[in-house]
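Complex 380.
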Amino acid sequence: MSAVCHNLSQFYYGPRVSMKISRHLKENVWTWKSGMAAQCFFPRMVGARFFNGMTTDPVVREEGDTPRVLITGSLGQLGTGLAKILRTKYGRDNIIMSDIIKAPKQIVESGPYIYADILDFKNLQEIIVTHHIDWLIHFSALLSAIGEHNVPLAMRVNIEGLHNVMELAKQYRLRIFVPSTIGAFGPDSPRNPTPDLCVQRPRTIYGVSKVHGELLGEYYQHKFGVDFRCLRFPGVISADTHPGGGTTDYAVQIFHDVIKQGKFQCYLRPNTRLPMMYIDDCLRSLIEVMEVPEEKLKLRTYNVAAISFTPEELVQALKKLIPEFHVSYHPDSRQDIADSWPEVFDDSNARNDWGWKPEYDIDRLCEVMVDKLQAKYPKK
Ligand SMILES: NC(=O)c1ccc[n+]([C@@H]2O[C@H](COP(=O)([O-])OP(=O)(O)OC[C@H]3O[C@@H](n4cnc5c(N)ncnc54)[C@H](O)[C@@H]3O)[C@@H](O)[C@H]2O)c1
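Predicted structure with nicotinamide-adenine-dinucleotide bound:
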């Protein structure tokens, strides 16, 4: 088959390009299967996707160069804050924010912001070439609770979208970061503590897509040498941006509701323990793992942990700062998801291999959230 393709491509593209196709065929069986058969028989039709990634030798960045970074899904809870930090570190114009929604004025004025649908491979290809991207930070996703309500869309965005970015990382030799989650574990995993390597049988489409991402990324790393890096984040707590429909969102909502209305209704039982992390710790862990030299990474997917608490413990910590407020508990379908997730994350590999260390405990987390939100919602 390889010889047939070689002959046909020689006919269509001439001997020099055809040589490259043949060489590439030997190295890239996956791409060959999906693209080459069609390429041979319908070369003009499918040329772009397959052909572009191999005709030019990609420019490989030197360690220490300032990277040019594309963030997908950058208008969500994590993306805006990350872009801000990376722009301070690497320069405003080196960080390209992207999403499918219209950005608020302050984002548009803060640096490059473009439309990028994770399902549109060709558009992503164009962005990577035009903006000389070196690192891709892939945030586009439907989170756990939202994903359960629209499984077909979650499969498209979380799985098909991931296929697109992995293929781009391979073709253009990008360093790629894909976040995973505590939701990548399930009821059969050890829950306290949950190590990096153990049984992963999640029960949500979100979790299934994240396990798929971890495995596919690691496969692309050992098969094609893609510089894939992945952290499993706990529930992320932030004051500046709103959470995107996850099971741990209560730990953000409580601060808004208590400060605005003096009361909070929790959708989890009071004793539901889950790993959590303040956003500054989360974004710092991401930047640290992106900057660490490859040889230090013994794994490609690491747990990172900071705090583990229950709603009741969070209420007690918050009462040290705001003594009077009312809480009620009305568990809904998110309780079942939480019951299948880790209670405490074991992140000893991240600590040992690249020096991960969180800075925010539950009291410091409450102080910073209350400070920020009291300034946002001044007392009437
Ligand atoms: N926030 C957390 O607590 C948490 C915890 C663990 C892992 N993560 C992971 O981190 C990443 C970012 O999380 P987040 O909280 O910022 O998510 P979010 O839901 O707040 O934002 C996701 C973004 O993806 C965008 N998006 C949706 N469909 C898209 C498409 N077709 N093309 C391009 N963009 C699209 C949305 O517009 C949104 O802005 C996700 O992969 C998530 O799974 C988040």
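The first helix runs from residue 2 to 13.
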